[in-house]
Amino acid sequence: MYRRLRSSVISLSLLLWLASSASALEQQKEVIVEKKEAHIPAGAGQKPWDVTRHVIALNEIQSGGPPKNGIPALDRPAFVSVSEADRTLKPQDMVLGTEFSGVSKAYPVPILNWHEVVNDDVGEQPVIISWCPLCGSALVFDPRVNGHRYVFGVSGLLYHENLLLFDQETESLWSQLRGQAVAGPLAGADLRLLPASVATWQSWKAEHPQTLVLSFQTGYKRDYGRDPYREWPLDRRMALIVSKQGQTKIYPFSELKKAKSAVQDELGGVSFTILFDGKQQSASVQSSSGDVPPHFTAFLGNVRAFFPHAEIYKAR
User: Fold this and answer.
1) HEC letters along the chain
2) Residue range 43-67: mean pLDDT, rounded
3) Domain coordinates in residue numbering, the chain
4) 211-246 pLDDT tens trace
């Protein structure tokens, strides 16, 4: 669990500063190579992070408190059936859900709050399940880069309050919301974003009655019934983010609620429909062509800071 950062959980001044440095967050891809080796501490007894190669300013990388692997990723996740999950999950508990080739899996947020990263497969699709409680951001990626599958963990570091993952093979640091290696040997490499939804357990299982569910028997002793971030002063206004062909559009839940019906839209040459459930506070994306564009949900303020040039949907 991250320590409280002094007055910095996305304050107004930080958001304004982030918006003014759009190129640093949204556009920069050029890899900078320091003349001398550069390192960032990874925690007591840990080998420092080699950040000689990077695409972001190194002084923008913050310590979240825990050391490398202080928040343990789940590498061998176990799953249970819907009936078994019903014994533990409440109808209004939130889950991160994803589906590929008819196989669906749900990852309860009460578990993700304590682990943040799950290395898994959904059907034949390798996935990285990632959750940043400070940004409310739930993103699923393909862990393969140039044909090689990487295994990811939690670095304990943050980039503008957002989770920095690391791959175990090269120990490069990856920004969750950018989906990019921002420092280390793989700096500049990108991960492919995959579709993911955050919904209540009640609504997810209704639409996916055969879903598998990440088991609370993780092998770690954690109080999964307690949300360690519940009292944090986070701006929890939610938004759906859709990305396709290099284009990104943000759909604030407040605007989707105003629409009062399904939202029809198009991005990157793909038409899709957004279904918003105000009662369940969830949004899903569907496409009649079957080509569902990658999408995820996150806190509106964080997403606007990372994607300051993205179009923001306004209900008519």
Assistant:
1) CCCCCCCCCCCHHHHHHHHHCHHHHHHCCCCEECCCCCEECCCCCCCCEECCEECCCHHHEEECCCCCCCCCCECCCCEECHHHHCCCCCCCCEEEEEEECCEEEEEEHHHHHHHCEEEEEECCEEEEEEEECCCCEEEEEECEECCEECCEEEEEEEECCEEEEEECCCCCEEECCCCEEEECCCCCCECEEECCEEEEHHHHHHHCCCCEEECCCCCCCCCCCCCCCCCCCCCCCEEEEEEECCEEEEEEHHHHHHHCCCEEEEECCEEEEEEEECCCCEEEEECCCCCCCCEEEEEHHHHHHHCCCCEECCCC
2) 95
3) 1-234
4) 999 999 999 999 999 999 999 999 999 999 999 988
Contact criterion met (CB below 8 Å) for 116 and 154 = yes
φ, ψ for residue 27, nearest 5 deg:
-115, -35
Query: What's the pLDDT tens digit per position in 148-192?
Result: 999 999 999 999 999 999 999 999 999 999 999 999 999 999 999
pLDDT at 233: 95
Q: Which residue has the tokens 């303020």?
A: 301
Residue 28 pLDDT: 56
**Segment 201-206 long-range contacts (CB within 8 Å, at least 24 positions apart):** 201/85, 201/89, 201/90, 201/91, 201/92, 201/93, 201/94, 201/95, 201/106, 201/108, 202/91, 202/92, 202/280, 203/277, 203/280, 203/282, 204/95, 204/97, 204/106, 205/82, 205/85, 205/106
Residue 292 CA from chain centroid, whole number: 18
Give residues with Cβ within 8 angstroms of 54, minimum separation 6: 31, 32, 34, 38, 182, 183, 184, 187
Give yes or no for a contact between 245 and 269, defined as CB atoms under 8 angstroms apart: yes
Largest CA distance in the chain: 58
Lowest mean pLDDT among 13-17, 26-30, 50-54, 295-299: 13-17
Mean pLDDT confidence for 68-81: 97
